[in-house]
Amino acid sequence: MKRELEHLLPADIERRSFEIISAELEGRGIVLPEETAPIVKRVIHTTADFDYAESLVFSPGVVETARAALRAGAAVVTDTQMARAGINKTSLARFGGEVRCFMSDPDVAAGAKENGTTRAVASMDKASALPGPLLFAVGNAPTALIRLCELISEGNLRPAAVIGVPVGFVNVVEAKELLLESGVPCIVARGRKGGSNVAAAIVNALLYGMEGGR
Amino acid sequence: MKRELEHLLPADIERRSFEIISAELEGRGIVLPEETAPIVKRVIHTTADFDYAESLVFSPGVVETARAALRAGAAVVTDTQMARAGINKTSLARFGGEVRCFMSDPDVAAGAKENGTTRAVASMDKASALPGPLLFAVGNAPTALIRLCELISEGNLRPAAVIGVPVGFVNVVEAKELLLESGVPCIVARGRKGGSNVAAAIVNALLYGMEGGR
Question: What are the residue boundaries of the Cobalamin biosynthesis precorrin-8X methylmutase CobH/CbiC domain, all occurrences included (chains A, B) (predicted)?
Answer without folding.
Answer: 12-208
